[in-house]
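Troubleshooting log. The previous structure file for this entry was overwritten by mistake, so regenerating from the original sequence record. Sequence copied from the archived sheet and checked twice against the printout by T.R.
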Amino acid sequence: MCDERLFAPQVEVLSGERHVHVGCIAAADNVGDMARSVLEVAPEQFALAGLSLGGIVAMEVVRQAPERVQRLALMDTNPLPEPPDVAVARAAQIERVRSGALIEVMRDELKPHYLVDGPQRASVLDVCMDMAVALGPDVFVRQALAISGRPDQREALRAVGVPTMILTGESDALCPMDRHTLMQQLIDDASLIVIPRAGHLPTLEQPDLTTEAMRTWLVQH
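Regenerated output below.
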């Protein structure tokens, strides 16, 4: 439930050095179609970064069109399919949102798990809620269905042969550290960057550190 504001600090800095485009994945309800929507508007070759659901989509982009992705950044994400117990809880969230409780679901069930405590927590949470409200309940349902039905991407990651950065906030409660070490192990020569004092959204919680990590990734060989 994020829009381009998720990467606003990085876009502000990096767009002065290169062309930056934030893809929209709000129209589809499955990961395959989300990836195709990215490929339809992307250049013939490009560097690709995705966070959370965006990272799941990025893995599918690489699976569908590996020849087009020149470098890859997977941030606070998960290559594994959804466990059955989580799928049950997500189905309950979908029903609540369909009944008109988007704000309550975001406030009570999702937002508390996003961020670490710190002086920026309240302002970042406000941005998260603003993004969610702007996207609305239909997008929530589509994205929840996509996450719940996401494929196992371990084989696709084993085939990745481009410079790759795995990045996570050190206190990400939604996508724990073992998911990121797994991705690092699956991709030859992938780097693992852990952002201190950050949870699931280091792009907003620790924007300077995250931007610098992305700048290094964009030039690594």
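The beta strands are 46-51, 69-75, 164-169, 191-195. Archived copy saved in two places this time.
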